[in-house]
Amino acid sequence: MTKENLTTSPQEAASRLLDGDLQLEHSSEGQVDTEKFARYAQIGDVMREAQSGGISIDITASVASALENEPCHSMANEAATLDEQHDNGTKVVKLSAWRKPLSQVAIAASVALVAVLGVNTMPQQNGPAIDEMPVLQSRPLAGGVAPVSFSSEQPALQNAEQGLRDLQQQRIGALVLEHQRQSRVAYALQQKQKAANQQSEEKK
Amino acid sequence: MRLLACILGLFLATTVHANDVVSAKQLLKNMATAVHTRNFDASFVVLKGKGMEPYRWVHAKYQGKELELLSLLNGAGLEIVRVDDLVTYYEPQSAPYSVKTDSIAGPIPEVLFKGVEALLDHYDFVLGGKGRIAGRPAQLVRVEAKDDTKYNYWLWIDTQSSLLLKAAYVNQQGELLEQLQLTHISVTPEPAEQILELAQREFPAPLPALKLNKDETVQSNWQIGWLPEGFKLLKSDRHKLDLNNELADYYLFSDGLVDISVFVQRPLPGQRPSGALSSGATTVYVHNSGAYDVSVVGNIPAVTAKNIAESVKRPL
């Protein structure tokens, strides 16, 4: 039996050990490749979900040896390209550094533009843009408010709204005309005021 | 050596700048003189946004009298006649009336034909480039506002005759908002036959002498908290508007170049948003403040009009 045991391959021994067929003792220990045994045990643990805290496989040794075996690449070239890449890198950083505020300004400007457009166009939807005086004067001014229809509520509301809009339009027309009329005397008034100021100064 | 050059450069720069101001001012003065002394017959158009207004402008000096005619050629029309210092307005809807003043209040600010020095407190005169306008060599003179609450006014002046060839309201971004462009001008040694008829025409008696009408009660009705630099109150009263018979507390302000009207009125029914309307350089801002409506009209940026309208409060 023991003889048989001795002749069996290390894999078989390990397998039997894990299955509990073989007692762990000095004799069996000698037959087993300890590294392989450890790995098998770990695999088993993982499959039974007994392992907690992650798998720990020690690969530092193999990595170190692999690195040692790695042939040395031409260092000079590499250093140059590295430098270049570094340079490019700084350029990109610089560009974006001054681009960023610029783009922010552009965004701010476009927002402001939208806001201004908003202010300008919003009321224009309510009433068509007033043209200057001649158009206002030629517009029929009597009967601005349309009669409210009794037939149903909807047209009545619409008419009322239309009436309001007309009222506002009419008012704006009146304001612009009044401004133009008044500014005709503005210059004369200004001259008068200046003269009056001069007189009062002379009196003093 | 370098210091010397620096000082010399600085000195030269300042003298050049001073010359610049003087010559820009001188050009404006020459223009004012030319407009008042030459016999000319001109046509110009005013471009306001999408609208356009064609005018004819005739001026003559005849037997010691100054005759000037400005007429709007489209639509119902408008005719303004000036004989020396009597200006008569003929409008389609109202009876003609006369005002005792020495310049026509047309599309060009009157101050530019008179004392431009008055503007120097709030505007800079800057020489611009040369160009060709209406077939004649022209020099640009920019009247630039000292702060950005106002528009700038640019004038292109004929380098030979000193007459105005083009003018524009320009915003702070350099966009031409409202342009006045001569399409034709003929300067003649003798006045045109057509305008001599004006010398014989009968005019309505001028309006009763303009009072510096500043109604104290109206002034105390409202507080106008903010105005752009340089604007002074010329007039305040309460009157009914011609077109819709609405009552309004009215204030007229001017900085010499542009006029601003402020109206405080009873609010219209319904919820209406405050907002601006503009046509060319003219802005109308209607501010709905609940108990009353404030409207501001004038050749000013919308933001300025908004700030004025929102600053109007009841006195505490």
3D structure, described in words:
The complex is a heterodimer of chains A (204) and B (316). With 204 residues, chain A is mainly alpha-helical. Chain A has three domains: 2-69, no CATH class; 85-126; 131-204, no CATH class. Chain A has helices at 2-7, 10-19, 26-31, 34-47, 60-69, 75-126, 133-138, 153-203. The radius of gyration of chain A is 48 Å and the shape is elongated. Mean pLDDT of chain A is 61; it is low at 1-5, 78-97 and 107-152. By secondary structure, chain B is an alpha+beta fold. Chain B is 19% helix and 44% strand. Chain B has helices at 2-37, 193-200, 216-221, 302-311, and strands at residues 39-48, 51-62, 65-72, 78-83, 86-90, 97-100, 123-133, 136-145, 152-158, 164-170, 176-188, 223-224, 232-240, 247-254, 259-265, 275-279, 282-288, 293-298, 312-313. At the A-B interface, helix 6, helix 7 and helix 8 of A face strand 13, strand 14, strand 15, strand 16 and strand 17 of B.
Layout of SSEs?
The complex is a heterodimer of chains A (204) and B (316).
Chain A (H helix, E strand, L loop, with lengths): L1 H6 L2 H10 L6 H6 L2 H14 L12 H10 L5 H52 L6 H6 L14 H51 L1
Chain B lengths: L1 H36 L1 E10 L2 E12 L2 E8 L5 E6 L2 E5 L6 E4 L22 E11 L2 E10 L6 E7 L5 E7 L5 E13 L4 H8 L15 H6 L1 E2 L7 E9 L6 E8 L4 E7 L9 E5 L2 E7 L4 E6 L3 H10 E2 L3
Antiparallel strand pairs in B: 1-2, 1-11, 2-3, 3-4, 4-5, 5-6, 7-8, 8-9, 9-10, 10-11, 12-19, 13-14, 14-15, 15-18, 16-17, 17-18
